[in-house]
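Give me C-alpha cells for this 100-residue protein.
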Amino acid sequence: MPKRYPPEFRRKVLDLVTAGRRVAQVAADLDISQQGIYSWRRHQMIDLGQAPGTTTTDNAELVAARRRIAELEIEVAIHRRAAELLKDAIDPKDGSRPSP
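Here you go.
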C-alpha cells in the first residue's frame, strides 16, 4: 500500500516543483517517488480547472453519496424482508377468535 502524506507536505513539494526544481531532484531529496509527485501535480491541475477530471471535492462528495446509497439499499432490503415476514403473519381481522 502506498505511503500517505499529509496535504501540507504535498503542497510544499508541489511548491518546490513550481519554483523550478526538477521532480527527480525533489523526489531524491525527500525520498519520495517521482510518480507520486507527478500524480499530485495532476490532481492539483484538475482541482485548479487546468485539466479535465474529477476534483478532490467532487470525489469526496461521490464517495459520501455512494456510502449513503449503500446504507439506503441495506435499509430497503431490511424493510422488504420485514414486509415479507409480516405478510405471512395472521391478519388481526381474521384472528383466532370465533365469529359470533
